[in-house]
Amino acid sequence: MARQKIPGLSLAVVRGGRLERAKGYGLANLELGVAASERTVYQSGSLGKQFTAALVMLLVEEGKLSLDDPIGRHLDGVPPAWTGITIRHLLTHTSGIQDYTETELLNYRLDYTDDELRKRMLTLPLEFKPGAKWSYSNTGYLLLGLILNRTTGRFYGDVLQERVFAPLGMGTARIISEEAIVQNRASGYRLVDGEWKNQEYVSPTLNRQADGSLYLSVLDLVRWDAALAARKLLRPESYEAIWRPVTLNDGATYPYGFGWELAPTNGHPTIAHSGAWQGFQAHIARYAADRLTVIAMMNLDSADPELIAKGVAALYVPELAAKP
């Protein structure tokens, strides 16, 4: 933390199905001097994509969506070039749609309606044929949120609260809201010329999209990890689909499933994902064969949560240590 100048960090370790450690370090809020704890609430960044994927799979199980549905079945105005794109492509980052965060398509200080977002996303070019390659695209998950809104007839965040967070006892998990009173909410920071500054403003509508706009504590993620280990919420075959490396058009595979990275660590099977947004960083790493999960959340946009999580994991299983 000192080397990376991280203001505050919350850490949780689950080993053998038991909570080994849940603790905060440093400060959740620099201005008020509030200490970080296991109950501190951080922004998820793209770590939240796994929850979007879980909600999609709930609707797939109910027959309301199919992974191989063309997205034009659920979104109006899809351009001809997008005809071959399916929900599976969006989940696995193989759609070929350019990542909107790498463009100037949106002004993050402005609010947009769902319809305005849809129309803007549909102007993005395809960088490759759907399924031909893997390329991380926040656009795909934003579109999944719009599809969920339309399919359920409700805001996807409300459905997520009802169908995932509440049943699993994730008591502080919720969609980002700057105006809501959120107990134990951390402040996000960035470094400017080596000095801490507050996070930059993002409009409320852009801070509630399905590409990762969640509030979570490490205790929320501990409960989520327990549900994953017990295969709660979804059918076994749904988890198999979520954690199966995507197969590309040429038959090759890429180590990414539905909202999860699947690259092994020194030969140890690993299911993981990071997230970064608005002055926050987060990482969850699940080493199933070792029955070990490490969760790290912090309030600095330039922090490296994966480095810290992997370092902690190696304290418990030395074989997971980074090789020189």
Instruction: Give the topology string: H per helix, E per strand.
Output: EEEEHHHHHEEEEHHEEEEEH
Strand content: 15-25%
pLDDT averaged over residues: 97
Q: Which secondary-structure class do the elements indicate?
A: alpha+beta
Helix fraction, binned, reads 25-40%
Radius of gyration computed on alpha carbons? 19 Å
What general outline do the C-alpha atoms trace? globular
- Ends apart, CA distance between termini: 21 Å
Number of helices: 8
What's the total count of β strands?
13
Low-pLDDT stretches = none
Strand order of the largest sheet: 3-2-1-13-12-11
Question: What would you note in describing this structure?
Answer:
By secondary structure, this protein is α+β, with helices and mostly antiparallel strands. The protein is 26% helix and 19% strand. The protein has helices at 49-61, 87-92, 114-121, 138-152, 156-165, 218-229, 236-242, 305-316; strands spanning 8-15, 18-29, 34-35, 42-43, 174-175, 189-192, 195-198, 214-216, 246-247, 253-254, 271-277, 280-287, 292-298. The strands form four sheets. It has a six-stranded antiparallel β-sheet, sandwiched between helices. Strands 4-8-5 form a three-stranded antiparallel β-sheet. A two-stranded antiparallel ribbon has the order 6-7. Strand 9 (246-247) and strand 10 (253-254) form a beta hairpin. Helix 1 crosses helix 4 and helix 1 crosses helix 5 (156-165). The chain is globular and about 50 Å long. It starts with 7 loop residues before the first strand and ends in an 8-residue tail after the last helix.
